[in-house]
Write a structure and sequence with these properties.
The complex is a heterodimer of chains A (328) and B (341).
Chain A lengths: L5 H13 L5 E6 L8 E5 L2 H7 L13 H5 L7 E5 L1 H12 L8 E5 L8 H8 L3 E7 L2 E6 L4 E5 L6 H4 L11 E2 L13 H7 L3 H12 L7 H5 L25 H14 L9 H5 L7 H15 L24 H5 L4
Parallel strand pairs in A: 1-3, 3-4, 4-8
Antiparallel strand pairs in A: 1-2, 5-6, 6-7
Helix pairs in contact in A: 1-2
Chain B lengths: L1 E4 L3 H11 L1 E8 L2 E6 L24 E10 L2 E6 L7 E6 L1 H14 L6 H9 E6 L24 E5 L3 E6 L2 H9 L5 E2 L3 H16 L15 H5 L3 H6 L7 H5 L6 E7 L4 E7 L19 H19 L11 H5 L6 H8 L6
The chains are: A alpha/beta (328), B alpha+beta (341).
């Protein structure tokens, strides 16, 4: 598959804004370094030419921004969607979270995005410049070293286990569409399932005890779109502020995982943004795996308007008692 | 100045740990974090721990007091545990400077006795940097990464660890490990400092300009049009505030246990929608206002109230951790005063 270039995206964005198809563009804005891109809304071609960037660090999923962005301004907003982003896009549409008419979606192919933490683990800190050459990243540092690292070796976890190179929604596609992939994304879940109860408890205790309740996982999550979250309500008694005890810190994440069960597309943003590097996606994947087991294969966001098994009663549904008994 | 070989550093740690709790950054599979030292733990060479060193003095959650109610009687119970002495080893220059900023807030009248208690019992042993990250910019705020403050300053070379006391507390610390260290000159340290300073000059953020910000600049920046674009993709999460070594906002709340009340304090974030919510409602309704508050506090309000001292130490944690890679450097550049803007 041809790797898409930044130039071709800039050209496309400028064309669509200049011919009036869209009035603004959601894209990645250049940062201080080559890896710290910020999601931004561009209002004209000059801004796009100056600051738009697309590279191996354009990981941010823009779907959730459409809720806010489609509520303001005249005209359509252009959004670039990688294959995995289109699942979130569809899921949000299924839940009527934004007006499809106000969006012009351009699908772009994706070869996987790099994780800067993995790059640093591989070649060290003090990075001045990162350029892409074929399937390698060339990394120059403060100390005069130039290191090469294979993109495949520094891919974000969610990209290592990429579920699909196929776009499930778009108005226009750049490059060729890919296929839904066989992947090993449930391997880690199975490892956890094979643990004893005590081991599993210890695993999550260790992971979740590091939580600082910054809520980044919730705030970035395209499935977490309540206008007012229960954890932001001072009257709820479970307001986000304190980690009162080890029970409460687990409760927050488990409640969140339950709340997005059947709606989570496994986009992996929660784990990407966690400042404490907690593998939160594993909680969601466990739910996805269970739903697949009990109700048949279901991928949230694959088809717009699909009824998720958990909100769609059929006579063949597993009895709750049988689901509980699965461990036996 | 005194030194010990790195081979005998464990003996130094053992001696210190026998005397009082000893904390230092230790590498884990998810990065470095402060940990109570035990035999076998190695001092991390990481620049930033995931969580900053402020946790030692300003923990994320702490119980302040309890109330027991029986009939019309309310009993107030002081639940604080008198802290014993402890040592925090390996604090970097940026985090060490953050203690000055926190002190200004917590130790000025009315003094926060919970914070003061922990500060009094701590000995801060800092460690000079030799391999800064591209995200480091402590020099911008006048911090010397090659000579961090603290009660004792340490320099780690290829073979030795050097120690120098900066005050009485530091001298007592040096005294404690006198048997395991030897008096030495500062030649190796000076060589290391010179070498590090050359690297510091080459840091990509080394020439970030602060002149435009500071005391009494509220009117100049409050309504700047740039805030809109800067804050447009802010998620409103609390990552920047919680990983920040100088963010010091908290909330005090009561927890009803059913047979009494626990009054606790916990970190709060100006990025949160219900931050400082009062009876009249909320004083910052949009994310733009909340975002602006955080950066104005660091760059304008804190300096205005504290003789021009900035509320940022350039540790770079927010640069590394923000989910959307928005941070104080980008804000400073966008608001002007820097080349190419």
């Amino acid at each position: 598959m041809q790797k898409i270039t930044c130039e071709s995206l800039i050209e496309k964005a400028c064309e669509l804004i200049e011919n009036g198809t869209v009035s603004r563009v959601i894209g990645w804005k250049k940062g201080e370094f080559d890896y710290d891109l910020t999601p931004a809304v561009f209002a004209n071609a000059d801004e796009i030419k100056k600051n738009f960037i697309y590279n191996d660090f354009s990981g941010a999923n823009f779907s959730k921004y459409l809720i806010k962005e489609t509520r303001k301004g005249e005209g359509k907003v252009l959004v670039f969607l990688k294959p995995c982003d289109t699942y979130s896009f569809n899921q949000l549409l299924t839940e009527h979270r934004f007006d499809r008419e106000k969006v012009y979606a351009v699908g772009i192919p994706c070869e996987g995005m790099a994780d800067i933490a993995k790059v640093k683990a591989a070649v060290g800190d003090g990075i001045l410049k990162i350029t892409s050459e074929g399937d390698e990243l060339i990394v120059e540092n403060l100390y005069g070293d130039v290191n090469k690292v294979k993109l495949a070796d520094v891919l974000a976890e969610r990209c290592v286990n990429c579920k699909s190179k196929k776009h499930t929604a778009y108005d226009e596609l750049m490059g060729e569409d890919g296929e839904i992939l066989d992947n090993n994304r449930f391997d880690e879940v199975e490892k956890l399932e094979n643990m004893t109860e005590d081991e599993r408890f210890a695993f999550w205790q260790n992971e979740l005890s590091r939580c600082i309740r910054c809520n980044a996982c919730r705030d970035v999550c395209p499935a977490c779109t309540c206008e007012k979250c229960v954890f932001d309500n001072p009257k709820s008694g479970v307001e986000n502020k304190a980690i009162a005890d080890s029970f409460e810190e687990k409760m927050f994440h488990i409640i969140r995982a339950f709340h997005v069960a059947g709606r989570c597309t496994d986009c992996g943003e929660c784990s990407r943004v966690c400042p404490q590097n907690i593998p939160l996606h594993l909680l969601n994947r466990k739910f996805i795996k269970d739903i697949n087991t009990f109700y048949g294969e279901y991928q949230a966001g694959e088809v717009e308007g699909s009824r998720a098994p958990l909100v769609n009663y059929t006579e063949e549904d597993i009895e709750p008692n049988d689901a509980v008994k699965r461990e036996e | 100045m005194r030194k010990c070989s790195l081979n005998s550093l464990n003996a130094v740690f053992e001696k210190l740990a026998n005397d009082s709790a000893l904390y230092m950054p230790v590498d884990g599979d998810k990065g470095a974090d402060y940990k109570k030292w035990e035999m076998g733990d190695e001092l991390s060479s990481a620049l930033n721990t995931n969580r900053s060193a402020k946790d030692f003095f300003f923990p994320q959650t702490e119980n302040l007091m309890e109330f027991k109610v029986s009939g019309k009687e309310i009993e107030v119970i002081d639940t604080r545990d008198e802290k014993e002495d402890f040592v925090v080893f390996g604090v970097r220059a940026c985090d060490a400077k953050s203690f000055d900023i926190l002190d200004t807030v917590f130790l000025s009248e009315p003094c926060d006795s919970y914070y003061a208690n922990r500060r009094e019992h701590a000995t801060i042993v800092t460690l000079a940097c030799t391999r800064p990250s591209e995200t480091c910019f402590c020099n911008v705020f006048g911090i010397d990464a090659t000579k961090p403050t603290g009660d004792v300053t340490c320099w780690k070379t290829a073979d030795d660890m050097y120690f120098e006391a900066n005050n009485e507390k530091g001298k007592a610390f040096i005294e404690k490990i006198a048997d395991l260290t030897e008096e030495c000159d500062s030649k190796a340290v000076e060589e290391q400092q010179a070498k590090t300073k050359e690297i510091l000059k080459k840091l990509p953020l080394a020439d970030l300009k602060t002149e435009k910000f500071g005391k009494d600049k509220t009117a100049e920046f409050f309504d700047a049009p740039e805030w809109r674009e800067l804050s447009t993709s802010c998620l409103g999460c609390g990552t920047c505030t919680y990983v920040c070594p100088t963010c010091q906002c908290y909330d005090i709340k009561d927890y009803d246990t059913g047979h009494g009340v626990i009054r606790f304090r916990c970190w709060d974030s100006c990025m949160y929608s219900e931050f400082t919510k009062m009876a009249h409602g909320n004083n910052r309704l949009s994310q733009l206002e909340r975002f602006r508050q955080r950066f104005m506090h660091k760059l304008v309000y804190y300096p205005t109230n504290n003789d021009g001292v900035f509320g940022c130490v350039g540790c770079g944690r927010c640069l590394a951790k923000c989910p959307i890679s928005m941070n104080i450097v980008k804000v400073m550049k966008a608001l002007g005063g820097n080349d190419g803007e």
